[in-house]
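hiii so my PI (J.) wants the whole complex modelled not just the main chain, which honestly fair. so below is everything: two entries, each one labled with what it is. i double checked the lines twice but i was tired so who knows lol
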Amino acid sequence: MHRLGGVGLAAFERQQQSQRSFAELSNELSQAHIDHLHAQLDHFRSALVRFATTHRDKIRKDPSFRHAFQRMCASIGVDPLAGPRKGGWWAEVLNLGDWQYELGVQIVDVCVSTRERNGGLIEMGDLVRLVGKLRAVEEGTITEEDVISSIKTLKPLGAGYEVLDVGGGRKMVRSVVKELDEDQSVVLAIAQDEGGKVSEELLVVRRGWAVERARAALENMLLRDGLCWLDEQDESGRPAYWVPSAMHWDE
Amino acid sequence: MSSSSTSLSSRTTSSGKRTRPSDVSLRYLLPSIHSAPPFFTQQPNPNTQATVSENWTKLILSYARHRRLFTLRVEDAEVPGGEWDEILRNTRINRRLLPSHLSHILADMVAKNRAVYEPAKQTRAALLLWRSPEEWAEVLHSWADSTGQLNTILTFPDIIEPPVPSPLSDIPMTLLRKAISVLAKTNRAQIISVADGEGVRFLAGNTSR
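here's the output for the full assembly
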């Protein structure tokens, strides 16, 4: 009788031995695997850093390139602004952290300085234009996306900066802690279509609102929130309301 | 809506009412807010009205300085054809500043020391302080200095209607008196009685003061 494993103590010993060898081998293999992954990660990381550093200027100056870069980072699950505490290597490599905060300060600047005439509500296009003016040309242009992501970084400050969608792909930035109800958003959207002007009739005709509802929404915006200005000399002979943030100003 | 394409823009006016040739070419650049229809309505919201008043004050004073106007009357908003039409009316958008609104703005300007009711004890006309009495005092003194008239006795007409036009030509008497009394306080001017009324003598004074 001949069995490979044999019987008895010796066989037991042998079996244990081979099991140990297998375990060792498996350890070795997974170690190699991990090492390999580490190496790959390092490689990837250094490649990304190299990419970021070589294209730093372009990332900071060219809005479409910056957008593409940010999208690429997002798709591979890296946030260029996140990273370790205190700036992080991303911020260091790209200087994008400072850039973003800097932009935030400029956004606040524009919002605050225009607040007295628009009641704390500014049209996105206007904001982008005014911020662009503030930055002069040297740093390159900025886009709506830059502004939106910068406003996100302002959120922890609790100042109430928020991007509002007023419908039809149009956005406004609100810089005061003030709740806009649904009716007011509708009024804003119509004002944007009309170059800033709204009236009770317009709301009744366009939206099928009851006169009382239109009046209440407009009066609230006028008297309570200071979001629009009254015009008593309108051609219609009835009061017209103007939303300064939807008017086209040039200064 | 006819106003759907409203765009507010600065524009120049073509006033031909200048008397001094050097100013004919200088058109007054109206701020873009002057093309905003609601700018001409008195706002029920006090915060909004504060913005409106402030912008009107700036506009009125800078226009007055540009055209050397010293007086604004509520009447100027009542009757067309005056020297203030250019800013009190915007015919392009068919809006005008109503007298009651102008009266409110004037009160605001007086409260902020940017105008004084003239004559006193009424509220229909005001003297515009596009320069404060202190600033006028400096202008007056440096004019006397640069034209070599320090220590000379000058009559009021000498200052108001000088042979060579000066920054002080046509300055209202009230304002001139205020400016002189500012200078008198620092010993840089003395009021002196002359044969046909009053005169003033400017002194070098202590400029290091």
